[in-house]
Write a structure and sequence with these properties.
11 helices; 5-stranded antiparallel beta sheet; 27% helix; globular; alpha+beta
């Protein structure tokens, strides 16, 4: 631009109004360059970049210039993830733009993130342009994409958290399930899934269909047979009860039955409404601390949890919750689907009676055995955020206080929040 003021005016304007060119959103930000020099070497760079799309195997000269332009590795953050996104889903979406070589997934700052490496930086650039800001499913699972500073990923294991497609011989690693290929096949076969029709749009599920699928009203093709039963191990057998497992796992789906194993009381089977809810609970709760112990959550080979035979007393270790009034996801399309977050130190409270004060709630949550770090009422005072000092304390408080009777038959609702105070 002619002047700095003109540049500032342009950026300010287009920050509020996203311009579209040929239906593709264009994002404008300041460059580090003070001015552009159009000397011979710069023109050569432009020519090389243009030639690359026509050249199948770029020379090392071209690759050097490209590496300087951008990395082949993308950092992907998924916002508002109320529907499980697996490594295979990412591979199918991004492979529309080129060869995906490696993927690593992890949770950071309570958000599902991934690093994904293309064979060529140009493919990474095209994928970022087309997919950044898109929803995988309608109104949820939004992709936020940046270039990573890394230019090569080091993958040690092929399992459901990381994958090197160039080295299928890698081990699955310590206790990690290797991914069931039927899951990937199910997503690619499903005509309602986003994986069929890029470029253009992601062809997402409608919000209602995604919510219904998450609630088990719709089984995705090929997944109907996969189990909705989880095996949870390394539990604190002195403290754990079917009710505490029902409450915690009920954050991620409608728990139907819970069985603490009679001969191995540090393990339990939990039957969710369907395999999607089981996958969601597993991805969020595996590795979390409950009653002081890091729990392990895996998919069980059992299809259902058996109830004890009539007249047989199993000391209350098996509970049937099929008709529980406390299921969060009974209503298809319920707004609870949009508020599923990983365990976090901050809890969202709702259904608070009008006469209950901040002090009352601070005391209640302190008595659950934790330290309250911060508290904030929403404007209507029916809802609030409360921050405990650790995620473990927040998990404990949720188990103890979700559905707590606050008097006048008003029961407190507690869930994990993505916000901090």
């Amino acid at each position: 631009m002619g002047t700095e003021e003109a540049a500032i005016t342009m950026v300010n304007y287009y920050t509020t109004v996203t311009p579209h060119i040929r239906n593709v959103p264009v994002f404008i930000q300041y460059s580090n360059h003070k001015e552009l020099k159009t000397d011979a070497s710069n023109q050569r760079t432009q020519a090389v970049l243009q030639a690359v799309s026509a050249v199948q195997s770029p020379s090392s000269d071209v690759q050097e210039i490209l590496a300087a332009a951008c990395s082949p590795v993308l950092r992907i953050i998924i916002d508002n993830m109320f529907y499980p996104v697996t490594l295979d889903v990412l591979q199918q979406i991004f492979s529309k733009f080129g060869t995906v070589m490696k993927i690593i997934t992890f949770t950071k700052n309570n958000q599902f993130q991934a690093l994904l490496q293309f064979s060529d930086p140009v493919n990474a650039q095209q994928a970022k342009l087309a997919l950044d800001g898109q929803n995988i499913y309608n109104s949820c699972c939004t992709l936020r994409i940046d270039f990573s500073k890394l230019v090569n990923l080091n993958v040690k294991y092929n399992n459901d958290k990381s994958r090197d497609y160039t080295r299928p011989e890698l081990p699955a690693g310590d206790g990690q399930p290797s991914l069931d290929p039927t899951v990937a096949a199910a997503f690619s076969k499903d005509s309602n899934s986003l994986l069929g029709k890029i470029p253009g749009a992601l062809n997402p599920l409608s919000a209602a269909a995604a919510a219904a699928a998450a609630a088990g009203r719709v089984a995705l093709a090929g997944q109907a047979g996969s189990s909705g039963v989880l095996l949870v191990s390394n539990l604190n057998e002195e403290m754990v009860t079917p009710q505490s497992l029902f409450t915690l796992f009920g954050v991620y789906g409608d728990v139907q039955r819970v069985k603490i194993l009679y001969n191995k009381k540090d393990s339990a089977l939990i039957q969710m409404s369907d395999s999607n809810q089981a996958q969601l609970a597993m991805s969020h709760l595996n590795g979390q601390k409950m009653y002081g112990k890091i729990i392990r959550v895996t998919l069980s080979k059992h299809q259902t949890v058996a109830l004890p035979r009539d007249g047989l007393d199993d000391q209350g270790l098996t509970k049937d919750y099929a008709n529980s009034p406390l299921h969060r996801f009974k209503k298809p399309g319920s707004k609870n689907f949009q508020n599923i977050f990983p365990p976090s130190a901050t809890l969202h409270l709702s259904n608070i009676p009008q006469d209950v004060t901040e002090d009352d709630l601070r005391l209640l949550f302190s008595n659950a055995g934790g330290t309250v770090k911060a508290f904030k009422f929403f404007q209507d005072r029916k809802m609030a955020l409360i921050q405990m000092s650790t995620v473990e304390e927040a998990i404990q408080a949720l188990i103890d206080l979700h559905n707590y009777n606050m008097g006048g038959n008003q029961h407190l609702r507690v869930s994990f929040s993505k916000s901090t105070i």
